[in-house]
Amino acid sequence: MVAQYRSRFPLIALAGLALLAALWAGLVRLGWGWPPLLRTLPAVHGPLMVAGALGTLIGLERAVALGRRWTYAAPLLTGLGALALIAGLPGLVGPVLITLGSLGVVAIFVVIVRRQPALFTATMGLGTLAWLAGNGLWLAGWPISGVVSWWVGFLVLTIAGERLELGRILRLSRGEQVSFALVIAIFLLGLIFSALAFDMGVRLSGIALVALALWLLRHDIARRTVRQAGLTRFIAISLLSGYIWLGLSGLLWLFLGGVTAGPRYDAMLHTVFLGFVMSMIFGHMPIILPAVSGLALAFEPAFYGHLALLHASLLLRVVGDLAGSVPARQWGGLLNVVALLLFLANTARAARRSRAQQLGKAVQ
Ligand code: HEM
Fold first, then answer.
1. Among 12, 36, 80, 144, which is most exposed with the fewest C-beta within 10 angstroms?
2. 272 in ligand 1 pocket by Cβ < 6 Å?
3. Which one of 29, 159, 329 would you pick to mutate in the ligand 1 pocket, going by the greatest count of ligand atoms within 8 A of its CB?
4. Distance between CA 141 and CA 137 in Å, rounded?
5. pLDDT digits over 156-182, tens only?
């Protein structure tokens, strides 16, 4: 059964490599004083995380969902782009490959939205457009600090669209759908505005992030499923805690505005990237992994270990960022990496156990 998924493993491996390289680069940037391995690696931490690791996995998930051969070109291009960045290839090889890959994901979404025109597909499609726009600006020579809010838009809208899709179970009223669309529109307006008046644009997007967090906290089915047990409860806790980080991030964007480097920049970005995005990935992994790799993933209470460590270490890092404590910021960042590695280890162990159980049942 797993054989049909085997062709996807090289893409998953490319995403994994990008993640590990990005984690190392992030620690070097936090000032741990370890060798950067390659001189150019610390500078590409952000693109490796957003495009190389997450962009490749999201592209792969979409390609699997659509089931057409050409769609696999998108995650392949972003994965190869990540490889070019890691290898420190000169010129624009990495950014060009990544931008082409994001164009591929946009093309996938054109097909998806035409097949199923709905608010949730449009939201995810707009997320990929934000990614493509950010990549285009990056390719045109804009600094990463100037395009990173577009990359945030990619991940936030992709996740919000996914949650909206599941929210259909709750039968959202017309007014609730309109308020969601309004929040997304304000966020996008902030992004466009940031190209003209950076500080104002970031603050406007911050207001939308707070509003989106409140909307999700109010309407997501996680509010109900958190009372259940096992995997369902774990997923709900991951989602709800992610929404709290999203709201906190929005507040930082709103009050700090157009910061482009340093500890406050670190807090503004990682409350959303680690607090929101990673919590959502932790929560969704038991659903995504079987779809993409064919490996089942049974819930284990140990999953709470990586989730708790992520939140505790991020709190330490952000307090360090805002209070000017270098050790808190550095230890928080290091423990963030431990939390992500623990997540990978727990996931691999659970997948192995589930597979052994499946094989055991098949033999009986
Ligand atoms: C897990 C541990 C992580 C560590 C230790 C880390 C570390 C860092 C550091 C030190 C910076 C520079 C901040 C500054 O200018 O002072 C940074 C920037 C950034 N990080 Fe992370 N990060 C981590 C996770 C993530 C994740 C999960 C994402 C995305 C999903 C991400 C995306 C970014 C981006 C886009 C930037 C901006 C890069 C730039 O301006 O060049 N990081 N990170």
1. 36
2. no
3. 29
4. 7
5. 999 999 999 877 666 788 999 999 999
